């Protein structure tokens, strides 16, 4: 019977490489049973050392999800503040829209900007092209010019 000792991840990798080299030799058929036992122990150690997913309770949002979308603003579920767009707020929290939606269990079509802001940007793109006219050197005809 083999004794069970605890190994660090570095030791497991190093010993696994050594065992793979032993197995690759043709002149060591008698050692294969011992090597197989050691590999099973190492595999158990790797599984035990792997980080476990946190299955704690989901944090409560600052406001109910169904009340977070207003016409002129969108309310962050993280801090309950009003924003026209959540993109810069989420980047300051080191979140992406995908991780934000996943964290709070939101659908894929949950908006990251207020409906009024999306309408304003759409109207600006229609009259000025993809880029806003204030950033162009040559001003095109704009909806603000009349």
Which blocks of ≥5 consecutive residues have pLDDT under 50? none
The count of β-strands is 2
Neighbour order of strands in the largest sheet: 1-2
Can you give the helix content as a percent range? Answer: 40-55%
List the helices and strands in order: HHEEHHH
Describe this structure in words.
This protein is mostly helical and 146 residues long. The protein is 42% helix and 3% strand. It is built from five helices and two strands. It has helices at 9-24, 32-49, 87-92, 97-104, 115-128; strands at 74-75, 82-83. The protein has a two-stranded antiparallel sheet. A hairpin with a 6-residue loop joins strand 1 and strand 2. Helix 1 runs antiparallel to helix 2.
Spell out the blueprint of helices and strands:
Layout lengths: L8 H16 L7 H18 L24 E2 L6 E2 L3 H6 L4 H8 L10 H14 L18
Antiparallel strand pairs: 1-2
Helix pairs in contact: 1-2
